[in-house]
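Margin note: ligand = NAP.
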Amino acid sequence: MIEGRRIWLTGASSGIGAHMAKELLQRGARLALTARTLGPLVALSERFPGQVLLVPGDLTDHLQVREIGMTIAQSWGALDTVIMSAGTCEYVDVSQFDARVIERSVCTNLLASSYCIESALPLLRAGRTPHLVGVVSAVTASPQRRAQAFGAAKSGLRYLLESLRVDLADEGIDVTLVSPGFVDTSRAENPELSIQGRWPASKAAAYICQQLQKRPREVVFPTRLLKLLNLLATLPKRVQVALAKRLSRRQGETSL
Ligand SMILES: NC(=O)c1ccc[n+]([C@@H]2O[C@H](COP(=O)([O-])OP(=O)(O)OC[C@H]3O[C@@H](n4cnc5c(N)ncnc54)[C@H](OP(=O)(O)O)[C@@H]3O)[C@@H](O)[C@H]2O)c1
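Resulting structure:
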């Protein structure tokens, strides 16, 4: 039941997060929306009056995330669901390896999520049937070309959430990971990155929202790709590397 749930959704200004916001608002949820770009959040609050709490900010800034948590606490007193969809994807050029790319990815995809979790947990503890959701990536199933920064950060986030699930089970807080494969979003507009089987963001968002109601440990899609990556992960490392090279050459680029 989504109607009336108090949900904090990050990454709500574009891509999967923006589509999830529309989907959840249409189903009657109350949403606290975060992103740095205010315009799309305001547009949603105007389209769904009374359902939206605007909590914009830069999630890589620990203090800003604490303030967002305080604003939600003052307005609602609790949260029923937190969906951390904010994230960035930067590819690594190994011929000119730049550690700052890794730093930026870890900062946005991992550390920022940990700031959100710090702010969210006390509110979830006061919520109804609390649910913590983090968007990771299918890339963590096996090593992919140029995905070192994104993959390292999302693997860290995966471990953070999976180990939190163990501790939070005692408190009745469910934890779900969302692992997209290929989704058409703003960051994937380059026609060279066109990949067969890529889902539109609206389809991905509808699927995630529908699946989250069942509170699975993980939501994975597109399933065909995931089956392939899981199979890859069972193969010897030298075979994995050879196949990853062929896969990314055929697809032009990895976009997990
Ligand atoms: N698209 C795919 O194929 C794919 C595959 C695997 C995983 N994912 C994951 O799915 C999630 C959504 O991806 P997407 O493709 O929909 O990306 P997107 O269209 O680029 O949207 C990313 C969202 O994150 C927000 N964000 C980024 N940095 C932020 C920061 N420092 N503070 C606050 N908000 C920030 C952006 O808002 P502002 O820029 O306005 O701040 C935006 O709303 C991400 O976690 C991504 O890693 C996507």
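The CA atoms of residues 135 and 178 lie 5 Å apart.
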